[in-house]
């Protein structure tokens, strides 16, 4: 312990004893070495980046003439004999009725893929349910609104 003498204005000296400050438990960030913190942040960033980038996804889905154009993005390895399942439901009032359904084998190359599906749809509102299966795994699935005009 340290002793400190303090002189006050009236000339009388007082001696104060300084005790060490009470230590609280160190924070988590103080207990964890800096290197581990940096490695943990980098690992979490890598996992977050990989989570959205390694799966197949649907791009634009349009209908023109008598065909549906489906764009699929495959950032991974090429896949042979995947299944593209398309179900189109006509939406009227508060009801939905199946207007078209088809499943076909497709090959997915790395990058952008485009598929044309022949379907005769009358003018109206539709919902397109699209799914890609690789083996027994569902790789991508989406529901898109379609508006067919005359």
Key structural traits:
150 residues; three-stranded antiparallel beta sheet; alpha+beta; 16% helix; 2 helices; four-stranded antiparallel beta sheet
Number of helices: 2
Structural class: alpha+beta
The total count of strands amounts to 9
Rg, rounded, reads 33 Å
Distance between the termini: 93 Å
Query: Which percent range describes the beta-strand content?
Result: over 45%
Largest sheet: 4 strands, antiparallel
Q: Could you state the order of secondary-structure elements as H and E?
A: EEHHEEEEEEE
Taken from the alpha-carbon principal axes, the silhouette is elongated
Q: How much helix, percentage-wise, in residues?
A: 10-25%
Widest sheet: strand order?
Answer: 6-5-8-9
Spans with pLDDT under 50 lasting ≥5 residues? none
The pLDDT mean sits at 82
């Amino acid at each position: 312990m340290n002793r400190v003498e303090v002189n006050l204005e009236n000339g009388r000296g007082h001696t104060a004893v300084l005790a060490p400050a009470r230590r609280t438990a160190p924070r988590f960030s103080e207990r964890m070495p800096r290197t581990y913190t940096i490695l943990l942040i980098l690992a979490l960033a890598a996992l977050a980046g990989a989570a959205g980038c390694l799966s197949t996804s649907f791009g634009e889905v349009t209908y023109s003439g008598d065909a549906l154009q489906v764009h699929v993005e495959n950032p991974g390895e090429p896949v042979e004999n995947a299944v593209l399942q398309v179900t189109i439901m006509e939406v009227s009032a508060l009801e939905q009725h199946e207007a078209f359904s088809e499943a076909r084998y497709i090959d997915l190359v790395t990058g952008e893929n485009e598929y044309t599906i022949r379907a005769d749809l009358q003018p109206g509102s539709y919902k397109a349910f699209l799914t890609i299966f690789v083996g027994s795994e569902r790789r991508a699935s989406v529901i898109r609104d379609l508006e067919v005009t005359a």
